[in-house]
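The protein record minuted underneath.
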Amino acid sequence: HPKTFHYLNQSKCFELVGISDAHDYLATRRAMDIVGISEKEQEAIFRVVAAILHIGNIEFTKGKEVDSSVPKDDNSKFHLKTAAELLMCDLKALEDALCKRVMITPEEVIKRSLDPQSAVTSRDGLAKTVYSR
């Protein structure tokens, strides 16, 4: 339900008079069929959208190291795991993408931990980047 997803519940508006989400979903699927988007491609699109919603529900807290962050609780770990499964990527790689900044120099790869607020910024940036593609 939209109320359970951070990216959907910010406006506090969940229903519009005269709008049927179920009808609009079916119309979207029909339109995707008409323009030649295969069933497999449609599933991939909806999987990515679902992953973005789960990414938005990941919250962070301070980690053991100075200026580091980790998923806040079991709920955040659930959303992280679900997003990784939907994106078909490695769980630890996704967590690192959210909680660490990677700098690549000609000599080395440097990973720097992000504090919880920076991890939220990283989370939202990743969600926007994935959505834009």
